[in-house]
Amino acid sequence: MIKRLGAGTLMFESRPRIAGYASVVGRKEAEGPLCELFDKIYFDSRGEDDTYEAAESRLQREAARIALEKSGLRAADMDCVFAGDLLNQCVGSTFGMMGFGVPYLGQYGACSTMAQNLLAGAVFVESGAARHALCVTSSHFCAAERQYRFPLEYGAVRTPTSQWTVTGAGSCVLSESGGDIGISAATVGRIVDLSVTDANNMGAAMAPAAADTIMRFLHDTGTSPRDYDRIFTGDLGMVGSELLYDLLEREGFADFRGRHDDCGLLIYNREEQDVHAGGSGCGCCASVLCTRILGDLARGALHNVLFIATGALLSTTTSGQGKSIPAVAHLLRLQSDHA
Amino acid sequence: MIKRLGAGTLMFESRPRIAGYASVVGRKEAEGPLCELFDKIYFDSRGEDDTYEAAESRLQREAARIALEKSGLRAADMDCVFAGDLLNQCVGSTFGMMGFGVPYLGQYGACSTMAQNLLAGAVFVESGAARHALCVTSSHFCAAERQYRFPLEYGAVRTPTSQWTVTGAGSCVLSESGGDIGISAATVGRIVDLSVTDANNMGAAMAPAAADTIMRFLHDTGTSPRDYDRIFTGDLGMVGSELLYDLLEREGFADFRGRHDDCGLLIYNREEQDVHAGGSGCGCCASVLCTRILGDLARGALHNVLFIATGALLSTTTSGQGKSIPAVAHLLRLQSDHA
Predict the structure, then answer these.
(1) Could you say which of A2, A91, A318 has the minimum Cβ distance to residue B127?
(2) First-to-last C-alpha distance (Å) of chain A
(3) Which residues does chain A have within 8 Å of residue B94's beta carbon, measured at their own beta carbons?
(4) B136: closest CA among B40, B61, B58?
């Protein structure tokens, strides 16, 4: 049984294991500081595919294939796949995953999708609903720009608060056993809306959701930031991270800033790569999770971390209609056996 | 613990209960044969709202509010909400559910969403991850036409195989206890693609997915269609239902046809309402489930039914790119205590 604590925190007794993980990215990501850690790099953003959407599906397919290979399991061993992405109707995941023939549960959490997949997957594994579950998500700069903003050919100017959608996918194999890393707890996010309407400032829209989830988790578990080796957020970028510090410091969590890293600030070299406020997209925190974070946990450099992925739940329709940008953040506690 | 059978069937020992349910629809649905059963009817398809998207969110909000009321529980009692819809980035659900303040897990299964929500919710309730969970989905004819086909003002001609998107929402409160109806089993669908590319013939695209899931469930449980009082599919319509009979009869399930009803054929009077092949949309099977099906189970007219919702996992982008329409179908076995 899964134990519930307080306002939405789940404790996993058996700690569902991350038995394999992989990340596949594009050229710009490979030019960043995590270059050496990716499992596969596509230097052409469309590769062998006709469309950017098909190229995004390929990123998912390859990340899942390599994660399975590293876990020593086959697609046929998976009881369920949890997948989602930013494209309309999550077609990156549909076309990415359909070849595997695994029972499929599509998830939509925008850029929080990787955390949502792992959270739902952990519930399925802990409850016996799945022995093994595959989690995967992706984003693609060119597909996202065309869908959310402008086709690249227009050469639109970006605002300083804008973020750069990561071309990349991350995938984890969850399992009852295997590997050195387990998911020991999770907090399901609530939709938080502080009336931010600037679609070029996602960090500001998402920071309040991250603050809400982090504070609920710390309150539910009676812990404080200093109880964790490191706390990673998904893609708040420079602007959102600063806002998160403000929100948490106001509530008395002054020790948060020193323990925090944002995946949107880890994946690129902001000084040199012209990504403005940092990286974003479902593939951003998924790629950083499946390289640096899980890598550091596996080799014992980290033992006990929090991973909070945030998502902005807007569409171009609601933005065009002048609506605000509601956001959500899901949290996972990841622990290594090296502790 | 949840027991797994064969290729993706889950058995719920404690039979998570449907403690409350409600359906809210538009005028056309109210003019159909289920008129007397809906909890609330909006005779103006935009009602008090500025946009069709906001009107769709209102349908969800009202369906959830009434389902909660009927269950005797409050939003604050819910540990989790599972919601999704057909609008880009599922904004009908985001804006519909954000006011409730309940931890939120967005689902994307296109028109299979209601079954997916209940399946995931049942796993959460059975495992202890949630004591109570809210499930909700919707569709809106005007919002869907503009997004998937043409703005209504164009007056586009519809093909004979096309279906009419239901303006409606359905919501269920799942709980450890309460009510006369439980979810005793479920089968997670796989993505099935038989290369149908006609976006005006969703029934044909979805029938193979329904056949795949139904056959896996019957095989896993060692049962046959005659073991169930009634078998309901989501929105295959006239064309998809006939194709489903063909597919199942070829595999030896000749007794399926006589036990089957399709929600897309139950919600409208096809002779009089000009809906061509029948109803469709997430709100179609959700509305029929939360009126006729659960109503018949509650009053003992049915005891033991299968509910299979199908979803076509396309986007206008993939259709425009000439891609096929992959589909998925999730199955639930619903049983009443009157048996």
Answers:
(1) A2
(2) 25
(3) 191, 313, 326
(4) B61
- Quick one: average pLDDT of B279-290? 98
Query: Which of A51, A61, A90, A94 to probe the B interface (max B CBs under 10 A)?
Result: A94
Q: Which of residues 179-238 of B touch A (CB under 8 A)?
A: 187-191, 193
What CATH code is assigned to B3-175?
Answer: 3.40.47.40
Q: Best of B318, B323, B331 to disrupt the A interface by mutation (most A CBs within 10 Å)?
A: B318
C-alpha to C-alpha distances, A254 to A4, B143, B304, nearest whole angstrom: 27, 46, 56
Q: Distance between CA atoms of B335 and B40, rounded to whole angstroms?
A: 26
Backbone angles phi, psi at B224, to 5 degrees: -130, 165
What the block records as the tokens of B15 is 């039979």
Whole-complex ipTM = 0.97
- How far does Cα A263 stand from its chain's mean position? 9
CA of B290 vs chain A CAs: smallest distance (Å)? 22
Query: Is the CB of B315 less than 8 angstroms away from the CB of A188?
Result: no
Locate CATH 3.40.47.40 in chain B: 3-175, 181-336
63-92 of A, contacting B, C-beta below 8 A: 79-80, 84, 86-91
**pTM, rounded to two decimals:** 0.98
Q: Do B104 and A130 touch (CB under 8 A)?
A: no
pLDDT for B172: 98
Is the domain B181-336 a CATH 3.40.50.970 member? no
**pLDDT band at A35, cuts 50/70/90?**
very high
- Return the structure tokens found at A34: 């995590």
Provide, as residue numbers in chain A, all residues whose Cβ is less than 8 Å from the Cβ of B91: 313-315, 317-318
Please give the structure tokens belonging to residue B211.
């056949």
Report, as an integer, the average pLDDT of A235-263: 97
Cβ of B321: how many Cβ atoms within 10 Å?
A: 13
Residue A254: which of A291, A218, A298, A203 has the closest Cα?
A218
- Strand A230-233 and strand A304-312: pairing? parallel
Q: Chain B contact for A323, CB < 8 A?
A: yes
Contact yes or no for B105 and A98 at CB 8 A: no
> Can you read off the two tokens belonging to residue A167?
């071309």
The rounded percent of chain A whose pLDDT value lies above 90 is: 94
CB < 8 Å to B127, chain A: 1-2, 123, 126-129
List of residues 6+ apart from B192 with CB closer than 8 A: B208, B209, B212, B326, B327, B328, B329
Helix (H, G, I), strand (E, B) or coil at B182: strand
Q: What are phi and psi of A232, to 5 degrees?
A: -110, 130
Q: Does B325 reach chain A within 8 Å, measured CB to CB?
A: no
**Average of per-residue pLDDT values in chain B:** 96
- Compute the average pLDDT of residues B278-282: 97
